[in-house]
Amino acid sequence: MTKTEEQNSLPTAAGESLADLSRILYTRGWMPGTSGNLSVRLSGNHASTALITASGRDKGELTAKDMVAVHATTGEEVLLPGRLKASAETSIHTAVYRRTDAAAVVHVHSPYSTVMACRAAEAGRTTALLLERFELLKGLGLDDPARTELPVFRNWSDVRLIADEVATYLASHPGAPPGLLIADHGITTWGRDLAQARNRLECIEAICQLLVLGAREGRAETTEELYQ
Ligand SMILES: [Zn+2]
């Protein structure tokens, strides 16, 4: 199949789902301006292809036509050159597709996750944010739903370096949570489809909101103390 034939035969429903979710997340303030990027891996005859939001587009105004077809594990563009450019962060999506069985990846700059990505960051190394005890952890499909460590990667200006670190990490951490933070930058989650990737994003953002609000700070009063 030529590139033109492949492009013309791509299903439009996936692009529409990406545009719909992009609008929702933009409206929440999680994709300010042109930031953030979403992708889905296609199935059947197109399983080697992923659709990803185009670079530099207002995320509140995307349509199915604003998606770029790329090779799901290399990021090479399937589209004819001269049209839209794939997201600048495509390599992070393809790293996740290479190392996991995900079929959808969501990356946004939601405020609470980004705050925690700043707080947990350390210069010169990958760190981790400990998430434990919150009921919301059950939304992540973890082996141990009581705790997990969310990796926090350095925010290299060359995005391929972030992608390399993500791929290396995922290869050596088979029980890793379905998400990651990038220092001073934002959050990425993934799942079997866009709905699951979005649910996981919402759970981690909500946990980070609780952490920012101080849910784990201060001493809890026991019942005895309350009645003394
Ligand atoms: Zn970003």
Structure summarized in a few sentences:
It comes from Streptomyces hazeniae. This protein is an alpha+beta fold and 228 residues long. It contains seven helices and eight strands, in the order H-H-E-E-E-H-E-H-E-E-H-E-E-H-H.
Kindly describe this structure.
GO terms for molecular function: methylthioribulose 1-phosphate dehydratase activity. This is Methylthioribulose-1-phosphate dehydratase. The chain is of the alpha+beta class and 228 residues long. The chain has seven helices and eight strands. Strands 3-2-1-4-8-7-6-5 form an eight-stranded mixed sheet, sandwiched between helices. The model has no long low-confidence stretch (mean pLDDT 89). The structure holds zinc ion (ZN).
Which SSEs are present, and which pair or pack?
Layout: H1 3-9, H2 12-27, E1 37-41, E2 49-53, E3 67-71, H3 90-99, E4 104-108, H4 111-119, E5 127-132, E6 147-153, H5 159-172, E7 179-182, E8 186-191, H6 194-212, H7 223-227
Parallel strand pairs: 6-7
Antiparallel strand pairs: 1-2, 1-4, 2-3, 4-8, 5-6, 7-8
Helix pairs in contact: 3-5, 4-6
The chain binds zinc ion.
Zinc ion (ZN) is lined by residues 35, 89, 107, 109, 185-186.
